[in-house]
Specification:
By secondary structure, the protein is an alpha+beta fold. The protein has 10 helices and 17 strands. The chain starts with a strand and ends with a helix.
Length: about 400
C-alpha cells in the first residue's frame, strides 16, 4: 500500500468530513452491507419456513398417531361390548328375569363370574354393570385396590336419573354409546378420591323397539389422559381432548398430577378466537393458525355410534414464538449478521483512511507551498500512481525552492 506522509512536525489527520472520503466510505459500505443484509434476510426467511414446515409436520404426526391410538382403543372397547352383549351368560340372565328365583340367582352368579374374569383381564375396566330398563343395577363388579369384587345385591343402586342411562336408552339397537369424560358418582356423590371415567354402553335384550336393559362398562380415563399428557410433554405445548358434548380437558407439560377439570369448549374462544374454536370442534384433521398460536388437531372417530354423532378431537396448541425459537435460534443468527455488518463498517473506515490519507497529505503540503513555504516534502513509499504523484510533488517543490532562493 502506498504511503505518503508529510515531513513536518504536525500529524495529518484523516477526516470523514471530506466529500470524496465520505462518498468512498458510503459506496464501500453499501456495496458490502446491502448484499449481506439481503442474503441474510432471505436466508432467515427460507430457513424459518422450511424448519417451521418440518416442525408442523412433526406436530401433526404426533397428534395423528395419538389420535389413532385412542381410536383403536375405542374400537377394542366396541368389540368387547358387542361380545358381552351377545354372551351366553348375559342372555341367560336376561331371560331368567321375572322367573324362578333360584334360576335367576344361578344366572346372576354365572354372569358375575364372567364379568370378574373380563375385568381381571383388562385393567382399564373399572366397573361392569347390567341395568334393567327402569335404571336399576342388576349385576355389578368393581375394581378396587384388592382386586375385582362383586357388588352385593343390597349395594346395587338406582341410576335412572343419570344422563348416560337416559341417552343410551334413546340409542338404536346395537348402537355404541360413549359418555363424555366425567367423575364417577356413587349414591349421588362424587367418589373420593376423584376418579375420572368414561362410560361405554349399549342396549341389551328385547326387540328392535324395546330393550330389557343396558350393559355398561366404566373405564379408567387415566388411559386417555396419559396420552394427552404425553403429547403435551413431548411437544412442550398445551394438549386438549374435546369430547362430543362440547367440553374439553387440558394438559400442560410436566404436570401429570393436575386435577380433573372439564370445561365448556366456549372458554377456548378467549384464548384462540371463535374461528379456531369452530375449526377444532367441526373441522377435519390439520393445522389452524392464530396470531399467537398454532393448533394441530386430529379427529377421533367413535365406532358404532349412532349416525350423526360427532367424534372427539385431540389438539395440541403451540405458541408461535416458542415454535420459532425451537426450530431456529434467531438471536444467534442476528448476532452473527450484526457482527458482520460492524466488521464491514470498520473495514470500510480503515480502507478509506488508507486510500485517502496520502491524498490529504498532498493537499496540505500543496497549501503550504501556495503560502510560500517551499521546504515541504512528502515521504513516498510504493510504486503506484499515488507514489508517482508524490515524487512529482517533491520534484516540483524542489524546483520552486531553488527558483525562489535565487
Amino acid at each position: 500500500m502506498t504511503q505518503i506522509r508529510a515531513q513536518t512536525p504536525h500529524q495529518l489527520r484523516f477526516s470523514l468530513g471530506g466529500r470524496l472520503s465520505r462518498r468512498i466510505y458510503l459506496a464501500f459500505l453499501l456495496a458490502a452491507a446491502v448484499p449481506t443484509a439481503v442474503a441474510g434476510a432471505v436466508g432467515i426467511y427460507y430457513s424459518i419456513q422450511a424448519l417451521k414446515a418440518e416442525t408442523l409436520r412433526n406436530l401433526q404426526q404426533e397428534v395423528g398417531v395419538r389420535a389413532e391410538g385412542i381410536s383403536r382403543f375405542f374400537e377394542q372397547l366396541h368389540a368387547e361390548l358387542a361380545y358381552l352383549s351377545r354372551s351366553e351368560p348375559l342372555t341367560r340372565f336376561l331371560a331368567a328375569q321375572g322367573g324362578d328365583v333360584q334360576r335367576v340367582e344361578l344366572a346372576r352368579a354365572a354372569l358375575e363370574q364372567d364379568f370378574v374374569n373380563l375385568a381381571a383381564w383388562y385393567p382399564h375396566i373399572y366397573q361392569i354393570r347390567v341395568l334393567s330398563a327402569d335404571g336399576r343395577e342388576r349385576v355389578r363388579v368393581d375394581r378396587r385396590e384388592g382386586g375385582v369384587v362383586v357388588v352385593p345385591v343390597e349395594r346395587l343402586q338406582d341410576k335412572s336419573d343419570r344422563y348416560y342411562f337416559i341417552e343410551t336408552m334413546r340409542q338404536g339397537p346395537g348402537d355404541f354409546y360413549v359418555s363424555p369424560l366425567d367423575l364417577n358418582v356413587e349414591f349421588g356423590q362424587v367418589e373420593l378420591p376423584e376418579r375420572p371415567v368414561i362410560r361405554v354402553a349399549t342396549r341389551v335384550g328385547g326387540g328392535n323397539d324395546t330393550a330389557t336393559g343396558l350393559l355398561i362398562l366404566n373405564l379408567h380415563a387415566d388411559l386417555l389422559l396419559s396420552q394427552v399428557q404425553g403429547m403435551a410433554d413431548a411437544r412442550d405445548g398445551e394438549a386438549y381432548l374435546l369430547d362430543h358434548s362440547g367440553h374439553f380437558l387440558a394438559r400442560t407439560p410436566g404436570d401429570p398430577a393436575q386435577g380433573f377439570s372439564r370445561q365448556p369448549a366456549g372458554r377456548l374462544t378467549e384464548r384462540y378466537g371463535e374461528g379456531a374454536l369452530k375449526g377444532l370442534i367441526a373441522g377435519p384433521a390439520g393445522v389452524i393458525e392464530t396470531p399467537q398460536h398454532i393448533l394441530s388437531q386430529a379427529t377421533i372417530p367413535l365406532p358404532g355410534m349412532a349416525t350423526g354423532t360427532p367424534g372427539w378431537t385431540l389438539a395440541l396448541a403451540y405458541p408461535e414464538g416458542r415454535l420459532l425459537r425451537s426450530v431456529f435460534n434467531l438471536s444467534l443468527l442476528y448476532a452473527v449478521l450484526l457482527s458482520g455488518l460492524v466488521a464491514i463498517a470498520l473495514a470500510g473506515y480503515a480502507l478509506s483512511r488508507r486510500l485517502l490519507g496520502p491524498l490529504e497529505a498532498l493537499s496540505r503540503e500543496t497549501s503550504a507551498i501556495a503560502a510560500g513555504d517551499f521546504s515541504q516534502r512528502v515521504a513516498v513509499v510504493g510504486e503506484d500512481e499515488i507514489a508517482d504523484l508524490g515524487r512529482r510533488f517533491n520534484l516540483m517543490a524542489q524546483r520552486l525552492e531553488a527558483l525562489y532562493s535565487n
